[in-house]
Every structure is written in structure tokens, then in C-alpha cells.
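Milestone 3.1: sequence recovery, worked example.
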């Protein structure tokens, strides 16, 4: 009789438990980092999004993707108004409000462009100091640049179109960019030249749960799933299935990266 009563009570609460589980929807912001991740036809696509979808599916939940500018994403992440932010670098400042899940590392090449007719050359980092450098606001380029901004003259803007116009108008001397920041649009501009100095480093690639997100309570489980997927090579295989070079499967951060 007691066993029957337990079964009846369990059945009464089962629909409520299932409803609570299915009601957990992670709010995620997509990014325009084609082909790794991008928003198209109302969906976040690419292997960067696929990894996150797989992780959250294994938890038994769903992801609701929105197309939001990065500057806004990183701002509201500080107060937990988004649950997942994908494919980004880490900085000491971001460590204060993000709980990062390591996907792997990429070889980051950071370039500087100037007007073709400018009569100066930059071969080393210290030679950047006399010049005004245009950069995207809230962006991580590389440790050398981001950690030493107080030594540089940097003018921050919101998009690359502004950087192009400012460089043409000689309001800045140089633009910093990389393949992750649409370097090709500067390389194709006939009035621009790439200077000799290039910063090369291994850069960690992460997706994060903001610490203030109410779903941060699941962070430990997410860490375990991502670690298992990375160390088993599953993340590598997923990227390769898209025909995209996967992040380097390193277990520890190299000294030259964040």
C-alpha cells in the first residue's frame, strides 16, 4: 500500500518537474565572426554556436539566440541580463563578471594598417607609441596591445567603417585589426598599407556564462561537459565537420596568452 502511495504522489509531481525542466531557456547573444559563428535567417550558425547548442542540449535545456551588437552584449553581461556569450577572448576585466568555458586556442595574428602615402614604418611594438591608433571599443586584440594601452594613444570607435573613414581623413595614424576583426576590408583598400610589425600569439577562445546570470548555478555542469568535449577531441571534430579549422586543443594557457 505504501509503495502504491509513493508511486501516486510521484506521478502527481512528475508533470510539474518536467515543466520546470523544459521551462529553462538560456538566452544567448550571437556574434558576427563568420564562418565560426554568425546570425542568418533568424538562427545563430557555425561551429561556435553548434558547440553551445550541444552543451545545453546535454543539460536537457534549450538556447534562445538573439542578434545583439557585441558592445551591448558585454555591457549587459556585467549585470547578468544574458545567460551565454559565445566565441570571445578573456581579459582581466572580463574575469570580474564572466565565467569562461575554454574551447581551445587559435593562432592570433594582429596587424596594423596606415595610409599608403604615410612616410613611416613600424617594425616593433615600441615604435607604435608616437602614433594615434584606431581600435574597436570593447575588443580584445592581443595581450601586447590590450595590456599596454596606457602607453599608447588609442582612439576607440564602434565599427570598422568609422576606422576606415578616420584613417582616410588622417584623424588617426594607424588601425589595429586581425582576421577575427575583418582584417580583409583593410587589406583590400588600395589607399592602405600593412606595416611590418605583426603580433603573433596563441589566444584562448571561450564562451561564457555571466556570473550574475540566474543560470550561473549550472556553470559547474557546463564546465564538465565542455572539458569532456574538448579533451576527447569532440570540439575539434565538430569544427572539422563544418570545414573550419578547429581551435588548438591545449589543456593549459600558454604564457603569452590570456
Amino acid at each position: 500500500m505504501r509503495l502504491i502511495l509513493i508511486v501516486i504522489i510521484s506521478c502527481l509531481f512528475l508533470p510539474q518537474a518536467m515543466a520546470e525542466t523544459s521551462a529553462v531557456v538560456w538566452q544567448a547573444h550571437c556574434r558576427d565572426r563568420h564562418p565560426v559563428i554568425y546570425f542568418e535567417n533568424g538562427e545563430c550558425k557555425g561551429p561556435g554556436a553548434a558547440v553551445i547548442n550541444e552543451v545545453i542540449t546535454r543539460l536537457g535545456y534549450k538556447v534562445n539566440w538573439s542578434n545583439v551588437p557585441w558592445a551591448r552584449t558585454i555591457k549587459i553581461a556585467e549585470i547578468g541580463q544574458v545567460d551565454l556569450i559565445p566565441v570571445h577572448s578573456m581579459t582581466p576585466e572580463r574575469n570580474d563578471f564572466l565565467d569562461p568555458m575554454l574551447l581551445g586556442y587559435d593562432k592570433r595574428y594582429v596587424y596594423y594598417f596606415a595610409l599608403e602615402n604615410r612616410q613611416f614604418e613600424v617594425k616593433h611594438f615600441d615604435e607604435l607609441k608616437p602614433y594615434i591608433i584606431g581600435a574597436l571599443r570593447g575588443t580584445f586584440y592581443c595581450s601586447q596591445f590590450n595590456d599596454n594601452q596606457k602607453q599608447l594613444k588609442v582612439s576607440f570607435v564602434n565599427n570598422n567603417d568609422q576606422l576606415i573613414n578616420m584613417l582616410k581623413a588622417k584623424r588617426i595614424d594607424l588601425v589595429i585589426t586581425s582576421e577575427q576583426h575583418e582584417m580583409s576590408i583593410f587589406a583590400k583598400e588600395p589607399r592602405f598599407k600593412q606595416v611590418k610589425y605583426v603580433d603573433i600569439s596563441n589566444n584562448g577562445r571561450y564562451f561564457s556564462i555571466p556570473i550574475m546570470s540566474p543560470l550561473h548555478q549550472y556553470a559547474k555542469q557546463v564546465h564538465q561537459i565542455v572539458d569532456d568535449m574538448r579533451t576527447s577531441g569532440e570540439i575539434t571534430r565538430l569544427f572539422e565537420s563544418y570545414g573550419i579549422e578547429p581551435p588548438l586543443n591545449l589543456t593549459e594557457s600558454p604564457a603569452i596568452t590570456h
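The chain has nine helices and eleven strands. The mean pLDDT is 88.
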